[in-house]
Amino acid sequence: MKHILLPTDFSENSWNAIKYAIHLFKDEACTFHLLNTYTPIIYNFEYVLGTPGQDDLGDSIRKQSLEGLKNLEERITKTFGDNPRHNIKVLSRFDMLVSGIKEYISKNETDLIVMGTKGATGAKEVLFGSNTVHVFKHVKCPILAVPDEYNYERPLEILFPTDLLVDYNLFQIGILKDIAKANNSRLHALHVSTGNDLTFNQINNQLALEAHFKDSAYLYHEYAIMNVTEAIDQFQINSKINLLAMINNKHSFFENLFFKSTINQIGFHLKVPFLVIPSNT
C-alpha cells in the first residue's frame, strides 16, 4: 500500500496534479491523502489572541476548507469511479503549506508528494514558484511536480541526470524504481562530462545505479562539457521524455539549479512532470 500526499488549494492546477497521481497509480493499492492548509486572510495579533469576533472568522475558514475537501473527494469519485485499490483520506490544517506538509509527514507514512506547479504563460511548462522550491528544499520526501494543464502520459521514457557523485543507497529512489517497473519505463541516466575521466567512486556509483534498475530498461548517456540545464534541454529535443527525475543533493548541481537563485520564481523549461528525490537523512 502506497501513501500519496496530495496538497491542494482547490485550484485547477492542484486538481491536475491529483488527476496525474490517480492515473499514475491506477493499478496499485494506494491511499491518497488530500491536504488543505489554510490561514485567515486577516491574520493579525487579535486573531492570535483569540479576540471575540475573530473566532467566527477562523471557524468560517475551517468550514470552507472542510467543504472544499468534501467536494474534491466527490469530484474524484465522479471522475474516476470506485477503484477498489484506492482509498481517500482528507485533512484540513490551520498552517502554512511547507510547515503543514512537514508536520504531516513527520507523523504519517508518506511515499510520495504530488503537487501542481504554475504554468508559464502561453506554454504548458513548469514554473517553480517560491512555495514549490521551499517544499523541494525543506521536505525530506520524494516530490513530483506536475506542470499546469499537463495531459497525463505514461512515463515510458524517464530522464535521470546525475553527476555520479552520490551513493544512491542513501537516497529515496525506491519510488522511482517502482514507477519505472510498473510502467515498463526506460530509464535514461545522463551524465554531463567535465572533460575528465570518471573517478573510481563515480564508476562504482554508475554500476550501482545500473544494478538498482536491473528490472527496467536502462540506458547510460554521456554528454560533452555543457551546462546541465542545456544538456537536459538538448536531450528533450532529441528524445521524447515523459518524466524528469533528479537527486536533491546539496552538494550537486541541483542546488545550483534552484536554491542559489535570488529571484522568487524560477522558470525551468520543462513540459513534463519532475520528480525530486531527497536523501534518507
From TrEMBL:
CDD domains: USP-like (cd00293). Pfam families: Usp. Residues 1-147 form the UspA domain. Belongs to the universal stress protein A family. This is Nucleotide-binding universal stress UspA family protein. It comes from Winogradskyella epiphytica. The lineage of its organism: Bacteria, Pseudomonadati, Bacteroidota, Flavobacteriia, Flavobacteriales.
